Automatic annotation (TrEMBL):
GO cellular component terms attached to this protein's record: membrane
N-terminal signal peptide: none
Broad class of the protein's primary localization: membrane
Name of the featured protein: EamA family transporter
Stored PANTHER family: AMINO-ACID METABOLITE EFFLUX PUMP-RELATED (PTHR32322:SF9), INNER MEMBRANE TRANSPORTER (PTHR32322)
């Protein structure tokens, strides 16, 4: 990778990390599920007119939309609405990598290797530190709902394993979004009530507009275009490690913009969780090889040793 490619990868990290701030802006004025419906309406329209139809895997992609799009974001937005701090949510969500390995073991009978088991245990230890140190102002239910979002993302990752080769992440993002707007709108009508939904739709604030435009247009579409272009040119082992920088960016952005200052136990738990993700996905070995320098003749061997579970769990995009 040349310096410009590293800069592009870092740009995506920043776009995805700052994304949590814009979600918070929207949740100040609109109910969470209605905001999710609006986000994916903008993702789908008019992009669906320009993004190639995913032939051969459309049914599976719609199922991905149920878990990776509707389930993940519906639960994530709800956890933030219930009071989970923005920075903390960006950390907790990363346990999806460990959940992906566990779901693959249950659904596909892929037995985790020793490294993955160690990584999962480290990640769970980090979650335990965060959960046991939650401040009184943070509802436990918000923490649990965010874990549900991570689990839904993991299920979507495993379903994505069966997608026909050649279908890009951008295609999956746009076409899987078809199943999100109407169900989320229906749930919002049921949970929040027609009066609240009508009031919100009749009074879109600048915060809501900024949230929808950024999360849909910048984080989802622009972020995925750049990310998938990098994945198309370079091995996943070179690109995937950058995803570990998303939580620190999310925490830093929340601290600077929202005054959402993490506690010491949250930072310790977050560091353990990110380390667990790195070990589970094998990213820690990639980083170590990069520091030591891998001989060019071994590069193909390194890429060949990447397992499918490593690739899915390590390359999943940001929220």
């Amino acid at each position: 990778m040349r310096p410009v490619h590293y800069l592009l990868a870092l740009l995506v990290v920043v776009l995805w990390g700052v994304n949590f701030i814009f979600i918070d802006f929207g949740l100040r004025d609109w109910p969470p599920l209605l905001l999710v419906a609006a986000r994916f309406t903008v993702v789908v329209i008019p992009a669906i007119l320009f993004v190639r139809f995913p032939r051969g895997s459309f049914g599976r992609i719609l199922l991905i939309g149920v878990f990776m799009s509707a389930g993940q974001f519906g639960l994530l937005y709800t956890s933030l609405f219930l009071g989970l701090p923005v920075g903390l949510s960006s950390i907790i969500l990363q346990i999806q990598a460990a959940f992906t390995v566990l779901v693959a073991a249950l659904a596909l009978r892929e037995i985790p290797n020793r490294r993955q088991i160690i990584g999962i245990l480290i990640g769970v230890a980090g979650l335990a530190v965060i959960g046991l140190s939650l401040q009184a102002s943070i509802p436990v239910v918000a923490f649990v709902v965010c874990l549900g979002a991570a689990l839904s993302w993991a299920i979507g990752n495993v379903i994505a394993r069966g997608v026909k080769p050649g279908i890009s992440g951008l295609q999956m993002t746009v076409w899987s979004g078809l199943v999100v707007p109407l169900p989320m709108l229906g749930l919002s009508l049921l949970i929040d009530g027609p009066a609240e939904v009508v009031r919100s739709l009749a009074h879109p604030t600048w915060g809501v507009l900024a949230s929808v435009v950024y999360t849909a247009g910048v984080a989802s579409l622009i972020g995925y275009v750049i990310w998938n272009s990098l994945l198309a040119r370079f091995p996943a082992s070179q690109v995937a490690p950058f995803t570990l920088l998303v939580p620190p960016v999310g925490v830093g952005a929340a601290w600077l913009v929202l005054g959402d200052r993490p506690t010491v136990p949250e930072l310790i738990g977050g560091a353990l969780l990110i380390l667990g993700v790195a070990v589970t996905t094998g990213v820690h070995r990639t980083i170590a090889r990069g520091i030591r320098g891998v001989p060019r003749r071994r590069r193909r061997d390194v890429v060949a040793r990447e397992t499918p579970a490593d690739a899915v769990a390590g390359v999943s995009g940001g929220p």
